[in-house]
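Sample pair:
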Amino acid sequence: MKIVIAPDSYKECLSAAQVADAMAQASTELFPEAEVVTLPLADGGEGTLDALAANLPITIETTPVHAPLGRPIDAKWGLWDQTAIIEVAQACGLQLLQPQERNPLIASSRGAGELIMAAYEKGCRHFIVGLGGTATCDGGMGILSVPGIKEVLADCSMELLCDVNAPFVGPHGAARIFAPQKGATQEEVEILESRMVAWAKKILHETGFSVAEMPGAGAAGGIAGALISYAQASLVNGAKRIMDLCGFDKTVQGASLVITGEGKSDTQTLMGKVPVAVLCQSHGTPTALVSGRIEDRSNLEQAGFQPIVEVSPRNLPIAQVLHPQTALRNLRLAILQLR
């Protein structure tokens, strides 16, 4: 019997590698004779660098950059031969700010541009860029404020790992959909929308790219639109690309069971998140969904997940749910329910 463990992270408490290791230990306990293979995954957002580093011979580099509010921090990126793995959340992620500091009116993506420059100076000319989890809604203006960055972008090829289809502006664009999650009031959302509209016009004038209504251009607060325009970057499905890079199709061959999961699974899971990508590429192999919280169970069952197990007891306070040791203990108990 072969079991493939391929989860996303449980965002606020466990990395994908920690989840995979815990699932693997419990699976070995449950099925002592089984061959258990772990493949930590991500969808292009937070955890992308860690997931790829767990599966590929990547060297982790550290570069001093400016965080979203200008504070100096040391941000990580990955060097894989001459390819750079950039996770923009490392430099301008929401996790770098305290809740009371969140303000997309002033948060800048400059640090992500500084990571790109550092990788370019190391000789990288191809970039795999994970989008997601940013504190910013500046349309990539911060990135483009780094001296020399436009010339660098023109000399590189880029893949943008993305799991959203939001356009740059409009009712489903970067400001109106995502800025409230980053601390913006409704009044501030409208200010940001006006900025993004003006910035889209400038991008069109400078590059000839019309990003305003382009699906996916609003990802990461509009960083996607800037990189599509100035680097001619290509948007790719983040979960699918990471699975391809990590050799999922080969790994799943001969498996009797695939186990995936994430912090919370609901209808949005079916819109390009890691678990549904795993389900689709498991080619009919039974795929269990073991996630911290389960909502919209019937939709998940109809998609094909079987069985579906919720990790965190509903009566447990959120502070305990997110404690790593508690999460690991509950994860083990959840896997043992697969018996």
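The longest strand covers residues 72-80.
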